[in-house]
Amino acid sequence: MSEKASISRQQQKSRETKEKIFQAAKRILQKKGYEELSIKNICEEAGVSNGSFYHHFKTKDDLLSYYIEDQPKIDPDLLELPDSVAGVKEGIIQVYMNYVKYCRELGVEFVSEYYDTKNQALNAAIRMERPYPIVTVQNYVEKAEQAGIVSLNVGIEEFTTDIRMIVIGNVFEWCVKHGEADFEGNMARSLGKYLDATLCRG
User: Where would I find the HTH tetR-type domain in this sequence (predicted)?
Assistant: First the structure.
């Protein structure tokens, strides 16, 4: 047996364990809610040890964050620097259309439980890592500014904070309406209005 094949099998087993833990957490969230989502309950549901859980995740919120943020990465070609403010706006909205699609794939029940006020993974003041979409947007806007395509009439931290709040508001509305809200339309419209007010020609 080659070392490469052995590593590959280990990696596959690790991925399967991670997925097993996630599916267990998802079942608990959907059946019993966030209050019952303890590491003990997750491990029992998944049939894994506590040590196995901690090998993959630091906390239960780390587990949820990993999956809600590990969305399929947007096609890099869509985020090539355009030559206009309108193009930058379109690129940013596309990032969050991708996020909306991923939320739909996870399901409104799962997302509703994740966006719980007790989930400190949502607290930007204490998060060590920032969610993928906002990192992508910040890097994209900073590159567009450096290229002289756009300028912001607010600071970059204020800009990303405002976008994060707009996105959370749209997700919350979708969850409160049990998936019946116009998720895509509301997200695109509200982000579009904010971007029209903050993105200027470079």
Answer: 15-75
